[in-house]
Specification:
Length: 463
């Protein structure tokens, strides 16, 4: 056959993914047949104007999917079964085993959720009525889903009623809805000095003033909260009391009681972000347990069960539930019924609990790998958490360190990414352990970070 040179000009996505799609589609169309040899990587890269590494990644992904096979010393060939590839290809969002080691995204592993999804979808197909999951749900159609959410939240020790639950497309929508329901332009919102990265932008869009509070090893300092309440007369407090990101801090029960007491004294509404709350096997009660009538509690399944299960739950007191529900409806009329049905079935059948337990095992294993690789360094961690907070020595500035780490093939997030406006960023980085699918890649990346911390910044690498 003539040398195969596909056209990538009109294709979406990265050039590597576009090349994989071209291989798949040309096999399906019969333009590439079993046994056909693909061009050498460098030759194809030159023809398409791509970097050789891009073609290498595409060939590796096509090999993983079973479209082609590589033979040492001979080249890359279309597999015998390749011409049976579906025109639609496979649904794959698999995390790459190529390219930079990514410690920048705080996502859990999919784990065993794929097999659970296969079984659940098969059950739904056998049960019939699939058209219901593609329809517009009526007002009370999600009651069973809300009841499942209430049952899930109740395992944390909270009293949760389905009538006080709002379903969302993940925790971020729930947080935004809570703030939208509580705040008006010009209001003051308190939070941690180092906080959830999107929060400053959310505050800016809402026209509210965001004030960061000093923190210690348990999170925000109660005396600082009291002082800020007297000075700013805030309307709300947003915080993550369990496995706070980026610092990993978890408040003890006494600290939570003091925060709840301050909220009561100063008529402050709390937005409690508990997305990591299901990871520790033993943890203090949520803040909402100590201030139920003035706390909007937000959680999701994406950090504790499966990252792609974009299902969030908001538990709000009676006087706030209507406003929160209306705020959610401003950004989406309803969460996808199919996604909610999967979540409800997993909660009801114990699958969610089993997957949550699997995430705990995975997190503990990665934390053990980190302890070995970072021994002797200054960092904070929780044995059940998904991330680390690494303090840098005086000779490193965080942005420079992140840039140098990227140069060495490891992606991180600097303290600046979590900074509340008006506060000073410490010389530290957040390192997320669970995004990488391979323990070996995670361990290698940790060793790179450890070695880099112990060296001095290059004179020619200043950000």
């Amino acid at each position: 056959m003539a040398i195969w040179i596909p056209s990538l000009a009109e294709r979406q996505g990265t050039r590597a993914s576009a090349l994989v799609d071209a291989i798949r589609e040309d096999i399906a169309a019969g333009l590439l047949k079993a046994g056909d040899r693909l061009p050498p990587q460098r030759q194809l890269a030159d023809a398409l104007g791509l970097a050789p590494q891009t073609v290498m990644r595409a060939y590796a992904e096509a090999t993983r999917r079973g479209y082609v096979r590589g033979e040492v010393g001979r080249g890359t060939y279309v597999c015998p079964s390749g011409n049976q590839v579906s025109q639609h290809g496979e649904a794959t969002l698999s995390r790459s085993e190529q390219g930079p080691i990514d410690f920048s995204q705080n996502l859990p592993l999919p784990g065993e959720s794929a097999q659970a999804l296969v079984e659940t979808l098969a059950d739904l197909a056998r049960a019939g009525g699939c058209s219901d999951y593609l329809d517009h749900q009526q007002t009370d159609a999600g009651l069973r889903h809300r009841q499942a959410a209430a049952n899930w939240i109740s395992t944390l020790g909270l009293r949760a009623d389905a009538q006080n639950v709002v379903l969302t497309n993940g925790a971020q929508q729930g947080i935004f809805a809570a703030l939208l329901a509580l705040l008006r332009p010009g209001d003051v919102l308190l939070t941690e000095a180092m906080t959830y990265a999107p929060l400053p932008m959310l505050a800016q869009h809402l026209g509210v003033r965001l004030v960061g509070l000093p923190m210690d090893e348990e999170g925000i300092v109660p005396d600082a909260l009291e002082s800020a309440c007297r000075q700013y007369k805030p309307k709300a407090l947003y915080l993550t009391p369990t496995l706070q990101t980026p610092t990993t801090a978890t408040m003890g029960e006494d600290r939570r009681k003091r925060i709840a007491c301050a909220a009561q004294t100063h008529d402050l509404v709390i937005v409690e972000d508990d997305v990591f709350g299901f990871l520790p096997p033993a943890r203090p009660l949520p803040l909402a347990a100590f201030a139920s009538e003035r706390t909007i509690f937000v959680t999701s399944l994406s950090k504790s069960v499966a990252p792609g299960l974009r299902v969030g739950f908001v538990l709000a007191p009676n006087e706030r539930i209507s406003a929160v529900r209306s705020a959610v409806n401003l950004s989406s009329w309803m969460p996808p019924p199919l996604m909610m049905e999967i979540a409800a079935r997993w909660i009801e059948g114990g699958v969610a609990s089993a997957l949550n337990a699997s995430q705990r095992v995975h997190a503990a294993r990665r934390q053990s790998i980190a302890r070995n690789a970072l021994e002797g360094l200054d960092y904070r961690a929780d044995p059940h958490g998904l991330h680390l907070w690494v303090s840098l020595p005086d000779h490193w500035e965080a942005d420079t360190f992140v840039a140098e780490a990227e140069h060495k093939g490891v992606l991180l997030r600097p303290a600046r990414a979590f900074l509340t406006l008006g506060t000073r960023a410490p010389s530290a980085v957040r390192l997320s352990l669970s995004h990488e699918a391979s323990d070996a890649r995670a361990a290698h990346g940790l060793r790179v970070i450890s070695d880099l911390i112990k060296t001095s910044a290059r004179d020619d690498f200043v950000v």
